[in-house]
Amino acid sequence: MVKITFIESTGKSRTIEAEPGSTVMETAIKHGVPGIEAECGGACACATCHVYVDEAWRGKVGPPSPMEEDMLDFGYDVRENSRLSCQIKVTEALDGLVVATPERQA
Amino acid sequence: MPDPIQTDVLIIGAGPCGLFAVFELGLLDIRAHLVDILDKVGGQCAELYPEKPIYDIPALPVVSGQGLTDALMKQIEPFKPIFHLGEMVEAIERIGDPAFRVTTDQGKVFETKVIVVAAGGGSFQPKRPPVPGIEAYEGTSVFYAVRKMEQFRDKRLLIVGGGDSALDWTLNLAPIARRLTLMHRRDQFRAAPDSVNKMRALAAAGAIDFKLGQVTSLEGDAGVLRAVNAKPDKGDPYRVECDAMLPFFGLTMKLGPVANWGLNLAEDLIPVDTEAFETNEPGIFAIGDIGTYPGKLKLILCGFHEAALMAQKAYHYIFPDKRLVFQYTTSSTSLQRKLGVI
After folding, report:
1. What is the least distance, in Å, from the CA of A45 to any CA of chain B?
2. Taking CB atoms and an 8 Å limit, are B186 and A104 in contact across chains?
3. Is residue A73 one of the residues assigned to a domain?
4. What is the ipTM of this complex?
5. Residue B52 pLDDT > 90, yes or no?
6. Span B227-234, mean pLDDT?
7. Are residues B137 and B109 in the same domain?
8. Which of B322, B341, B309, B329 is nearest to B20 (CA)?
9. Cis amide linkage into residue B98, ω under 30° from 0
């Protein structure tokens, strides 16, 4: 199992176990992490599962794809470390990953 | 008021369930009109995931959202549905038992015996950019669509976004605006390359301003915009003086006017019975994602089933004196005639 820590905009954090092969969004929804809406269900067709990847993890997580960048245009307060969590696949290499959720989704 | 359009059934929503309802109704000699807020058919399949694969349509191991829409359109062709696209149903008024007068936001009026609400997640509406207090400017200085270009003549305009709508309106409004600024988060665009090239040429010639950034706050009084504050990814925040802002941030689903139709609602869904998928208002049915009942699953295949059962009951409202004989398309000459295959 891979541990992922979600930090809310209020500062509250929660660490949950994610299944390799699933996505960070699916993990969040399954465990009812607040701040992730995933309106489109993971089709990379909205921007309501937006997260900020912790600086220490940006290299391992990698940059958004061009299609994901297009969707991030619709996000709220998009930053350089913004990703859509439905597009981050959980792998063993991401054990310990830390992401923050924005103050609000779009 | 224009003459009302007379129909047996008005289907609200032209997504997969609304389209398949045309088929099931058509087999029973019931013709339908459909209204959809999008400018195309297919609903979420066409708007959200046209290229994405769907794996759980019976007998189709894989089909794209657009592929499913195209196949449904072909399947319902014999029944000649009439589409009213780019319109939103605003009001429903009961005028008979059952019969309804339905009005759209474009002023179109229908008189129908039966209504089928197949509105999915509600109506697709322009996404409001998350800027504090933006509501106060909507309709006076902030516009999500351009109805009349003339209203922007000689104004200082700020267009925000990087898709086709933002780029198209930049190109169309630049000649008549006093000054036009296009603002986008990054220097890449989702729009047609030709539009992007034209926009860049205008910016290079000094005819418009292109700025990188995201809007952070608005300045103005009583709904009249004075300026917009923004910040780029890198660099200092800045201010753009403008009379109107046009944000183009795509579409989102909102329940919208469905809430005002006098139907019972449960958490933004319409409760229905499971025999005919009829709402609390006799003659108004709800199928697909917008309907709910114990055990409901938001699957396209469930919506198809709901459409078939809905049509059986709708038949009795439309032809109260006729007996309905259940038939199979495989063996019924009369159904095959309707389908135009014999």
Report:
1. 5
2. no
3. yes
4. 0.77
5. no
6. 93
7. no
8. B309
9. yes
* A39, A73, A80 ranked by CB distance to B162: nearest: A73
Q: Which of A35-39, B19-23, B204-208 has the lowest mean pLDDT?
A: A35-39
- Give tens-digit pLDDT for B164-191: 899 999 999 999 999 999 999 999 998 8
Residue of A nearest to B189 (CA): A70
pTM listed for this prediction: 0.79
H or E element at residue A72: helix A66-72
Contacts B253 to A, Cβ<8 Å:
39
- Which residues of chain A fall below pLDDT 70? none
CATH number of the structural domain spanning residue A51: 3.10.20.30
**Number of domains, chain A:** 1
Q: Is the pLDDT of residue B51 over 90?
A: no
Strand partners, B125: B252
Chain B: give the shortest CA distance to residue A29, in Å. Answer: 17
CATH number, domain containing residue B326 = 3.50.50.60
The partner residue sitting opposite A106, judged by closest CB among B49, B130, B188, is: B130
* pLDDT of res. B1: 66
Contacts of A39 in chain B (CB under 8 A): 252-253
Contact A45 B49 (CB under 8 A): yes
Chains A, B: CB contacts within 8 A come to 43
Outline where DSSP puts E strands in B27-130: 32-36, 53-54, 63-64, 82-85, 89-96, 99-104, 109-117, 123-126
